[in-house]
Structure formats: structure tokens, C-alpha cells
Amino acid sequence: MGISVDTFFLKPDGQGTLQAQIQQMIAEGILSGRFHVGEKLPSSRKLAAHLGVSRITVTLAYTELLANDYLTARGRSGYYVSENAPVPPKYTPVRRSTETVDWDRALARRFSDGDVLTKPQDWRDYRYPFIYGQPDRTLFDHANWRLCAVRALGHKDFDSLTGDYVDQDDPLLVEFIARHTLPRRGIAARPEEILITLGAQNALWLTSRILLGHGRKAAIEDPSYYALHELLRCSDATMTALRVDQDGLPPDAIPDDTDVIYTTPSHQCPTTATMPVARRHDLLERARALDAMIVEDDYEFEMAFLGAPSPALKSLDRDGRVIYVGSFSKSLFPGLRLGYMVGSEAFIREARALRSLVFRHPPGHIQRTAAYFLSLGHYDAQIRRMSKALLQRRQTMEEAIERHGLTVAGRGVFGGSSMWMRAPDHVDTAELARQLQKQGVHIEPGAPFFSDPHRPRNFYRLGYSSISSDRIPDGIARIAEAIQAS
Amino acid sequence: MGISVDTFFLKPDGQGTLQAQIQQMIAEGILSGRFHVGEKLPSSRKLAAHLGVSRITVTLAYTELLANDYLTARGRSGYYVSENAPVPPKYTPVRRSTETVDWDRALARRFSDGDVLTKPQDWRDYRYPFIYGQPDRTLFDHANWRLCAVRALGHKDFDSLTGDYVDQDDPLLVEFIARHTLPRRGIAARPEEILITLGAQNALWLTSRILLGHGRKAAIEDPSYYALHELLRCSDATMTALRVDQDGLPPDAIPDDTDVIYTTPSHQCPTTATMPVARRHDLLERARALDAMIVEDDYEFEMAFLGAPSPALKSLDRDGRVIYVGSFSKSLFPGLRLGYMVGSEAFIREARALRSLVFRHPPGHIQRTAAYFLSLGHYDAQIRRMSKALLQRRQTMEEAIERHGLTVAGRGVFGGSSMWMRAPDHVDTAELARQLQKQGVHIEPGAPFFSDPHRPRNFYRLGYSSISSDRIPDGIARIAEAIQAS
What we know:
The structure is a homodimer.
Chain A: H1 18-31, H2 44-51, H3 55-67, E1 71-74, E2 78-81, H4 103-106, E3 128-129, H5 142-152, H6 155-162, H7 171-181, E4 194-197, H8 199-211, E5 217-222, H9 226-233, E6 238-243, E7 260-263, H10 277-290, E8 293-297, E9 322-327, E10 339-342, H11 345-359, H12 364-375, H13 378-403, E11 407-411, E12 418-422, H14 429-437, E13 441-442, E14 444-445, E15 459-463, H15 472-485
Parallel strand pairs in A: 3-13, 5-6, 5-7, 7-8, 8-9
Antiparallel strand pairs in A: 1-2, 4-10, 9-10, 11-12, 12-15, 14-15
InterPro entries (chains A, B): Aminotransferase_I/II_large (IPR004839), HTH_trans_reg/aminotransferase (IPR051446), PyrdxlP-dep_Trfase (IPR015424), PyrdxlP-dep_Trfase_major (IPR015421), Tscrpt_reg_HTH_GntR (IPR000524), WH-like_DNA-bd_sf (IPR036388), WH_DNA-bd_sf (IPR036390)
GO molecular function (chains A, B): DNA binding; DNA-binding transcription factor activity; pyridoxal phosphate binding
Keywords (chains A, B): DNA-binding, Pyridoxal phosphate, Transcription, Transcription regulation
């Protein structure tokens, strides 16, 4: 019996080459039990005509399936589903009728009720996406990333990528970070003092689980990275939010019984304030007096196109009191999920053990790909390309904001990729964002960054890492109009 | 001033092409500040002669660095370090003198003092590696994995791979698991009931954090997966270990106040026992009576070369009481770190929120690569290839074990990749393993799998997923000799 040519169709949104799509639909037909052993496939000529593709494309797909033993060839008579093809599922899945579990009782704790800022999944369809922290495909060196990934998949690297290293990191990546990345932040660290994490979020979580817990006290900046609130809430520690000023976190405000201080000295999130060196020394002094630990989130230091960034707070740390968190999410792309943390060996040992418990180690292949991308110099070339584009966008932002009389509440002095904005007091920027959305403008309301119950609702953030320069003036004009109309 | 050709050398263990190695050493020289702006590079002829490579190789490396603006060319006079080259670190790192932090006080809890089975990093150098759960490079379809990875890095997929999906999974991978993988285990699940995890370890950890905690009680199998003990110890729950018999976990033994039952019904770890269907119904009945949850670790079900595996316990679950954990670590490779869990929507919602808190989501690229590898049929082809090899090894194992009179304590009835062995009572297999190591034989001592304080010390596990058939008889002979001599 032959399989009818009519059961084949190319999906309008099909991905990959035509050959791969054809191969995939046949494999799926066999795996789902729709095609049976011994059934004859349509001739390559027929299928090609039906799908409107070239005959060679179909023949190549068949040949591939032949090599995998999904199909067999019988002389000139054509291709058949092989006897050795995978057997389709034997058990007919039955839908569970009614679930009886009492989830209120079963769940020891809930994690899903946090207050998080959600990004629209379709932000690329916005004409004016002032979104923060997303990759700009026009700036990313896709070709070289791909080459590095292929190199990391080579036979030489295969063992190191596929093996189960339990709790080890890629030595190439760790070495590059130690020798080239950290010295730029004034930090000297041995490999035992470095841990690769699944992004900065993962690093921050590890610190919360190791240093905090019931009965401990954390101090955070207000406003601050919204995911940090949620993360600390789940740590069972008490949390105090300290209002930042134009120089970032004020050390004097830190309560006496604080155990851990979370701070973003280079580039306060989200106000972009940079902490002056004198205050950094005060902060370290205050932490020493309290015997408190400091977690430094040094995000986005690479985007310094207006001036050299200050060295990291960690570079001034003589006590081993600062845990430094870095990330490749902004400079490469967030979907990569790669970051790192630097701290005393005693701390990194615990972080490594906890990481091992939670997921063992970040996947080997992405570590090695990043190591190649960094060590071949592509990373630095890319940072310079991004910085150049961001500098131009920043200038356009400044001009347009000036022209339309919008109020800047914070702008990074050395660069960055966002500006912190203040609308008039009566404006609720969550409502403003909804209004602007209809015109294809995406802005980020500021309220989720604040911990204060009486939090201000008139701040907003404008990212410029994903909007092209020529769209900026028109986008800012629309924001100004919408604020006027509020 | 010219850079001396003598500062260049190819590392004996250098990886990648010669061109890439040359490019890398120059980029590193610039990034580390050893080479300065305006310095002249050696001529391609000179450097090629010095390194013993072809001149075109050096020229290609220089051209690449030219494109990245690390070098500039000045007519016929040669290549120079570009003015636009990345600036080397400005701050001289200073080593911290003495650390003053009191880590006993600073650490809210310790994770590094667990009792874990460590695998030798150099196991590939063993002549007789009876190691468990490591990839066999001769069986893995490296070429197609690489093609899928390259496809997943294509421009079409770039956005989906690089973006920050916060807590979403790759829809292609989830769909394949729902439509093709789970039906083979008798399980019907909607995408909302599936979560991609960083391996099975990560899935088990998520269950422990959501379902357990202070005041809750877990029941586990004894012996069981050693990392599970550690994971539950860190959950603050009380843990009862129940001795398994030839049919796996005995439901009657589960204490009355149990909240969560961890079990491996398809293939008990490490004894390889398969739980009969009647006992599975008893287990579900017992869990219902206790209103307890069950976590089913369905590892290695793919390696069924001796007979069809039983459907998963989850397939019999009508209450929504079973949380199913699957993994690609054994069938693809552990360094991939990909697994999944299936449960009621109420549970998966919490698991997703917790995962988001801890690391957001598994890296997009590895999810998409796996989705292609699966949907193009390579995965099933690979399983069949592995099963064929494992069947042959298993037969060789059985023959050699029979010939040398070793005692099998458990062998998977449908296949698997290991056998659970018992040495005479007086033999400590940890000591036996040390003895055998000197002869290039790696075996896994059984004690770490037991929770019992009076745990037996005479069991051991023999994996056959990484040892070739022709080495097996000799390896088994050496084990028999060593046991004789004990």
C-alpha cells in the first residue's frame, strides 16, 4: 500500500531548509504511527511536483532517511518505510478524568504569586520599542558566534562538552574571565574564586540561598532590579529597601543589623547613578563595621562609550567581603544564560556545591562557544560596535528629550543602554504605557522597581538597545504627546 | 617598533585550526596589554617560518584581525596593532592581602559537606571503564548533532534563541516531547503540564523545594541515587529510606505521615529492579490513602533492548498525584543538561516560577538543537544504534560474569546500561575499587547509594555504556581476581 501524496504539506511557517522539512514530516509520520512498516513512499518526482520543490530536494531527504534506517530502497521500485524504523507508541494515552490532589495542601510553598514586570512577547512588532536588555540582531556578530559554536562542536572538543563534569566549569572560559575580563574591572581572582552561572539572576539567587535565610537581614536599593525583590522574598530573610540618591546607595542608611547588602555601584539599576569612589570606601567601611557581606551586581559595565567606567567595588575590597556578579546577557544575548560570580574561595565552594545540587553545571557547549568568542577577540570587537551604535542613539535620545521637554531622572555618566525618566507627578506610567502601546510605542513603567508600599507611579525607563536611531525622535515625540494628554 | 617573532609560540595542546590559534595569540597579546597600539607585527613570511606553518595560514589570521579592527595594514610595509584595537586593562590588579570575613558566621548554610560519589576526571584513560552514565563517543551521532546545532544557529532561529523569554520553553521541543516522547510512556500531557529542566537533577531539586520543607516528610528508596539524599537533606524535610526488594519499593513500608514518595519504578536505581504492574497500582493506592505525592524518576527507559518497557507509573495516575521526571542525559549526553518534568498544571506553574527565580530558563540554543535532533528522527536512530551496542555488551557481560562466578544482585529485565553486583560480605568495595584502579579498572562502590547508617559495603555497580565489548571479558576477569584476593 502506498502513502498518498496528499498527506504531505509544507507548513507556511516551516523552519529550516526544504529538505529538512520534508525529512521531518516523514520522520514524524513514522514516529506518530501514521505511516506503517512496508508502506511505500510517493516517488520523488510525484512528491516534488506536489510540494512544488525540486526533485533533488526530495531525493536528498529520502537518502538521509535511508541512512537513518527510517526507509529502505527496493531497487527501482522506490522507497518504503523500513522494518527497522522506530516503532510508534504502543500505549494509547488516556486523559486523566478528574484530579483529586489538594494543591493547597500539597504545595509546601508558592513561587508563582510574585509581582514581576512582564515584557511583551511581540516587542519586535512595535515600531518604537524602548525596551531594555534585549538583543539587537543588527549589532550582534552572528557569523562569528556561529563559527565559534561549530568549532566548539568539533571532534576535539566533543569529550569536554558532552561529559558530566558534576560541578566543574569550562577551564578555557574561566581562564579568559580571570585574565582578561576581571582585570578590566580592577579585580584579580584565581580560578577557585570564580564560578560560571546561568546568568546574573542565577548568581544573585545563589547568594540569597547561601548568605540569607530565616532570621537574616538584607538591605537592597530602592528602586532596584524587580526580580531581586522576588528572589529575596523567597529567601525568608527580612528585607529593607533604602532609597537611593544621585550617587546611589547611601551607606549611612544601612540598618545596624544588616547581614547582606545588595548594590549596583557602577550603574545603579534602574536610575543609572554611578557611586563616587569616596562613597564606595564609606560603603566598605560601613559593611566592615556591621560585619556584613556585599553583593555587587556589575551589570552592563561593558557599555562605557561616554567615559571609562570606575573600577568595580570588588577591586577595593581587602576583606573578602564583596561578592561580584557579572553577566554576558547584555553584551552577548540574554537567551545565552551565561554569567559569573567572583568571591572568596570559602564562598565559591558553597556556591559550587549548591549549583551542583540544583542543576550541576551550565551546559558545556555554551561555555566553550563563549570561550572561543571571547578569546578570538570577537567579543571586544562586538562591544566596540555596540558602543558606537549606542553612543549615536544616546545622542539622538538626548536631543529628542531636550526638544520635547521630557524630564530625565537618571542617565548613566559613562554610557549604558537606558535612561530613567520622570513624568509629572499625576501621571501613572503603567496607564501611560498602555496608551502608548496602541501607537506601537513600548516603554517600561517604573513602579515594579520600587519596594516602597507608597511607591511613586510616575517613573519610567527608556531602553535604547533595540530601537534604531531614526525611530527615536518620532518615538520620543509620541511619548511627550501622551504625557501632555494625561 | 616591531613585535619580536620570538614572543609567538603554538601551544602543544592548542585547540582549533592553526589559523584560529594564531589569531587567538595575537588577540590575547593585545587584550592583555603585551602588544601596544602602532606596534608592527612580524611579516607573514617570518611568522610562518618561525611557527612552521604555511604563509597563507598566517595571512588569513591577519586578515581576520584586520576585519575586526585589531590590526591595520599600511600598504606594503605590513600589519600594525590598530589604533581602534581594544584598550588593555587600566587598573593593575592588587592581590587582597588578608581576608577578614568570618565565614562560619557569614554562611547561613553549608552545601559543600555532602557525601557524594565522585567520578574520576580521567576515566577515559582507564583501560576498563565500567563507569555509569557517560557518553560513548563511538555511538553518538556527532555529525547530525552538529548539523542540528548549526541549523539552530541560523538567522531564522536567531531571535527565538537569543531573546529573553523569562520563563518560557522552546515550543518546538515541548511539542515533540508531548507528541512523541510521552506517548511512548503512555502519558498524555498538554504543554502547560510540561517543563524543560536542566537535566533530571534539576527536576528533582525543583520538586524538593516546592513539595518539601521543614516539617514535611519524604520517603525514598534504599539504595537510591546518591545525589537524591543530598538534595533532600538540603530541603529540611525528614527523610525515611525504605529498603527495596526484587520488585522495587514495597508500598506497605511507606510510613503513615509521608508527604512525598520518590521512586524509580521502571528501573530501580541502582538495583535495576522493575516494579510489576500490580505493585504500581498498590503504590498509587497507598499514596492516595496518605494523600501523598509521588515523584517518578523514569531514567533510561529508552535503553530497552531486551523487551518493551512497562508504561510509566504516571500513565496509571488518575489523581494528578504523580510528577514524572525524564532526561536526555543518558540517551544524548550528560553535558547537554536537558530534562523535563510532567505534572498537573498547578504544580508546573510553581515549578516554572521557581525555575525563573533560580535561572529563568534553560539556554535557548540547546533546546532548539535538541528539538531538531529529535524531530528529524536522529534521536530515534541513535537510540537504536545505542541499544544494539548495549545488547551486545550486555551479553558479553553476562557470559564473563557467569564464567568468573561473580554474583549479580540486579539486572534490568528490559535492558539498561548497568548491573548491580554483590561481592562476598567481607569485601569493602570502596577498597576493592582502589585496588582495581591500579590495574586500569574502574568500578563504582555501592555504599554511597545507601542511606542506612549500617549500610552494606559489599555492593558495586558495573556500567557498560562506555566500555567496548572486547575489553569486557578481561575487565571482569580482573575484578574476579581482585575479589578472590580480598
